[in-house]
């Protein structure tokens, strides 16, 4: 497509956008009586209007049924997670049995590593991306220590080459192959939170399996953002939070994926709890843990109805959109437009003031564009906020902008470019 840097062109794209109306399902924060252009859905997605209604419904169930709510009402709590499983499955490319909503992300990362990081004296290493989200670094370090190994020798980090910002797939697979028989676990992000790079998850999985390792992914920035085929790619396990691209609210419930090939493996360790016990027998309260089949068997505590209700509300917009494919189509164009717009700003300023570090290739990124501001980045970012554009700031000089296909428009992207240019002219003159 030949993009044009003008309002009429942006508005024409919005007119032709088959899912433009989904924007109306969300509540935008306001400043001085005007809604923000919200480009921060990679950090916390917007509130769906349906959230309050769904939450209210569950508060009513609690009020009207109290403890009987577990088995009564339109959505008995005992089985409520099954409604979510059906909606989560198409988002990550899995069967409903392979996914389950539970806990929060880092907690699930730990629980899944208990099952899938099973180091031996000779095969004990974990391979991961350098500069992974800190929670993942801490979780992995502490798991390694828990098993009596030293993170300095047990963790292999794959870093970008000198002068580059993103990872090359051949470097990732080479690192896996090189330490092949020492690697117990390959644990990568799906989309890197800082650069927005989407890794070739299928290639990583193949390389990991060829080396004899287990392969897992943290999909915090990938789930609800890019099309995933966790089952077909043969990934062993994954987890994600639902409050970023999936709009389930601050601290929203996490989702896990366990590949069906592991369902009958009785040797897997688990940190078990009563809610992972076989559903039909759970209330017999018997001694000796017997897991429910599938991802449900990793549940620990009783189901979190309120956070699940919020996730349910937001999953309804994905359903309305037709799940990931239509969203991804729009996302690719939106993000490409943002690339063009930022380049236009640089051109108008006569220098590369904003260096894009997100991969240019659509297949290597999701709905995020990260830019390094060469000068006064913090002030530029603050001025964007003053002018009703809410992106997100990462020290020391990175601005992340995420046009989210569910609720952002081409006009949002165009206007952001115009403001960025005006602000830069004022601050940098
Ligand atoms: C956002 C994010 C987290 C946050 O974890 P919580 O347990 O939900 O606080 C963890 N890992 C990655 C990669 C993230 O992007």
UniProtKB/TrEMBL annotation:
<dbReference type="GO" id="GO:0043420">
    <property type="term" value="P:anthranilate metabolic process"/>
</dbReference>
<keyword id="KW-0662">Pyridine nucleotide biosynthesis</keyword>
<feature type="binding site">
    <location>
        <position position="243"/>
    </location>
    <ligand>
        <name>pyridoxal 5'-phosphate</name>
    </ligand>
</feature>
<feature type="binding site">
    <location>
        <position position="218"/>
    </location>
    <ligand>
        <name>pyridoxal 5'-phosphate</name>
    </ligand>
</feature>
<comment type="pathway">
    <text>Cofactor biosynthesis; NAD(+) biosynthesis; quinolinate from L-kynurenine: step 2/3.</text>
</comment>
<feature type="domain" description="Aminotransferase class V">
    <location>
        <begin position="77"/>
        <end position="262"/>
    </location>
</feature>
<comment type="similarity">
    <text>Belongs to the kynureninase family.</text>
</comment>
<dbReference type="GO" id="GO:0009435">
    <property type="term" value="P:NAD+ biosynthetic process"/>
</dbReference>
<feature type="binding site">
    <location>
        <position position="221"/>
    </location>
    <ligand>
        <name>pyridoxal 5'-phosphate</name>
    </ligand>
</feature>
<dbReference type="Pfam" id="PF00266">
    <property type="entry name" value="Aminotran_5"/>
</dbReference>
<feature type="binding site">
    <location>
        <position position="274"/>
    </location>
    <ligand>
        <name>pyridoxal 5'-phosphate</name>
    </ligand>
</feature>
<feature type="binding site">
    <location>
        <begin position="133"/>
        <end position="136"/>
    </location>
    <ligand>
        <name>pyridoxal 5'-phosphate</name>
    </ligand>
</feature>
<keyword id="KW-0378">Hydrolase</keyword>
<comment type="pathway">
    <text>Amino-acid degradation; L-kynurenine degradation; L-alanine and anthranilate from L-kynurenine: step 1/1.</text>
</comment>
<dbReference type="InterPro" id="IPR015421">
    <property type="entry name" value="PyrdxlP-dep_Trfase_major"/>
</dbReference>
<comment type="subunit">
    <text>Homodimer.</text>
</comment>
<dbReference type="GO" id="GO:0019441">
    <property type="term" value="P:L-tryptophan catabolic process to kynurenine"/>
</dbReference>
<dbReference type="GO" id="GO:0019805">
    <property type="term" value="P:quinolinate biosynthetic process"/>
</dbReference>
<dbReference type="InterPro" id="IPR015424">
    <property type="entry name" value="PyrdxlP-dep_Trfase"/>
</dbReference>
<keyword id="KW-0663">Pyridoxal phosphate</keyword>
<dbReference type="GO" id="GO:0005737">
    <property type="term" value="C:cytoplasm"/>
</dbReference>
<dbReference type="Pfam" id="PF22580">
    <property type="entry name" value="KYNU_C"/>
</dbReference>
<dbReference type="GO" id="GO:0097053">
    <property type="term" value="P:L-kynurenine catabolic process"/>
</dbReference>
<dbReference type="GO" id="GO:0030170">
    <property type="term" value="F:pyridoxal phosphate binding"/>
</dbReference>
<feature type="modified residue" description="N6-(pyridoxal phosphate)lysine">
    <location>
        <position position="244"/>
    </location>
</feature>
<comment type="function">
    <text>Catalyzes the cleavage of L-kynurenine (L-Kyn) and L-3-hydroxykynurenine (L-3OHKyn) into anthranilic acid (AA) and 3-hydroxyanthranilic acid (3-OHAA), respectively.</text>
</comment>
<dbReference type="InterPro" id="IPR000192">
    <property type="entry name" value="Aminotrans_V_dom"/>
</dbReference>
<dbReference type="InterPro" id="IPR015422">
    <property type="entry name" value="PyrdxlP-dep_Trfase_small"/>
</dbReference>
<dbReference type="GO" id="GO:0030429">
    <property type="term" value="F:kynureninase activity"/>
</dbReference>
<feature type="binding site">
    <location>
        <position position="105"/>
    </location>
    <ligand>
        <name>pyridoxal 5'-phosphate</name>
    </ligand>
</feature>
<feature type="binding site">
    <location>
        <position position="106"/>
    </location>
    <ligand>
        <name>pyridoxal 5'-phosphate</name>
    </ligand>
</feature>
<protein>
    <recommendedName>
        <fullName>Kynureninase</fullName>
        <ecNumber>3.7.1.3</ecNumber>
    </recommendedName>
</protein>
<dbReference type="InterPro" id="IPR010111">
    <property type="entry name" value="Kynureninase"/>
</dbReference>
């Amino acid at each position: 497509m030949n993009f044009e840097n003008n309002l009429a062109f942006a508005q024409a794209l919005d007119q032709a956008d088959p899912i433009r109306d989904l924007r109306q399902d969300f509540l935008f924060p306001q400043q001085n009586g005007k809604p923000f252009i919200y480009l921060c859905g990679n950090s916390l997605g917007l509130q769906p209007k349906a959230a309050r209604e769904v939450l209210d419904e569950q508060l009513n169930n609690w009020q009207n049924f109290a403890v009987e709510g577990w088995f009564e009402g339109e959505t008995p709590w005992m089985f409520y997670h099954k409604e979510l499983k059906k909606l989560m499955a198409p988002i990550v490319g899995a069967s409903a049995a392979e996914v389950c909503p539970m806990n929060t992300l880092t907690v699930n990362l730990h629980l899944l590593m208990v099952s899938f990081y099973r180091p031996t004296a000779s095969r004990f290493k974990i391979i991961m991306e350098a500069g992974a989200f800190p929670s993942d670094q801490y979780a992995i370090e502490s798991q390694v220590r828990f098993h009596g190994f030293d993170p300095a020798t047990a963790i292999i980090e794959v870093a970008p080459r000198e002068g580059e910002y993103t990872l090359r797939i051949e470097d990732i697979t080479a690192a896996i192959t090189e330490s092949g028989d020492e690697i117990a676990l390959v644990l990568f992000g799906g989309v890197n939170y800082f650069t927005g790079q989407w890794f070739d998850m299928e290639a990583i999985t193949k390389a990991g399996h060829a080396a004899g390792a287990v392969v897992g992914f943290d999909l915090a920035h990938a789930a609800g953002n890019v099309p995933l085929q966790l089952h077909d790619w043969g990934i062993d396990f994954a987890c994600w939070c639902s409050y970023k691209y999936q709009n389930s609210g601050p601290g929203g419930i996490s989702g896990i994926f366990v590949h069906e090939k592991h369902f009958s493996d009785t040797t897997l360790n688990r940190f078990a709890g009563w809610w992972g016990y076989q559903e039909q027998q759970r209330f017999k309260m018997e001694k000796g843990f017997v897991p429910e089949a599938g991802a449900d068997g990793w549940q620990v505590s009783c189901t979190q109805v309120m956070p699940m209700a919020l996730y349910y509300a937001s999953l309804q917009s994905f359903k309305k959109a037709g799940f990931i494919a239509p969203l991804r189509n729009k996302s690719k164009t939106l993000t490409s437009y943002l690339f063009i717009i930022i380049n236009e700003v640089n051109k108008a300023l006569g220098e590369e003031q904003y260096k894009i570090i997100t991969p240019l290739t659509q297949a290597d990124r999701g709905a995020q564009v990260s830019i390094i501001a060469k000068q006064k980045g913090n002030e530029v970012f603050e001025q964007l906020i003053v002018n009703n554009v809410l992106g997100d700031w990462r020290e020391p000089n990175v601005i992340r902008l995420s046009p989210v296909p569910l609720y952002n428009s081409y006009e949002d992207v165009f206007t952001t470019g115009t403001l960025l240019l005006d602000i830069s002219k004022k601050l940098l003159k």
